[in-house]
C-alpha cells in the first residue's frame, strides 16, 4: 500500500477482500493489481491508460475498468 503521507506498507490481504471492505469509502479497482482511493486521483490519462495520484504515483487502468472510472470522474465533475 502507498499511503497519502508517502509511506509504504505491505498488506497480506487479497485485493478482492480489500475492495469489499473499502467499497463504502470510494475506492475503485483500476486494474487486477491496483485499488485506488478515488479522492486522491489527480489526473486521468486515457491515452496512457493510467491515473496520476496525489504524490505523483502513476497507476495502471485496465481497458475493462476504464469506462467505469470515466463515468465516476464525469459524475464528480458535474457535481462540483
In short:
It contains 2 helices and 5 strands, in the order H-E-E-E-E-E-H.
Key phrases:
80 residues, OB fold (Dihydrolipoamide Acetyltransferase, E2P), two-stranded antiparallel ribbon, 5 strands, 3-stranded antiparallel β-sheet, 26% strand, alpha+beta
Helical content class: 25-40%
Low-confidence stretches: none
Count the helices. How many? 2
Mean pLDDT across all amino acids: 91
Beta-strand residue percentage: 25-35%
What this model shows, in words?
It is a single chain. Helices cover 31% and strands 26% of the residues. A hairpin with a 4-residue loop joins strand 3 and strand 4. The chain is α+β, with helices and mostly antiparallel strands. The protein is globular, with a radius of gyration of 12 Å. It has a single domain, classed as OB fold (Dihydrolipoamide Acetyltransferase, E2P) (Beta Barrel). It has 2 helices and 5 strands. The strands form 2 sheets. The protein has a 3-stranded antiparallel β-sheet, with no helix packed on it. The protein has a two-stranded antiparallel sheet with strand order 1-2.
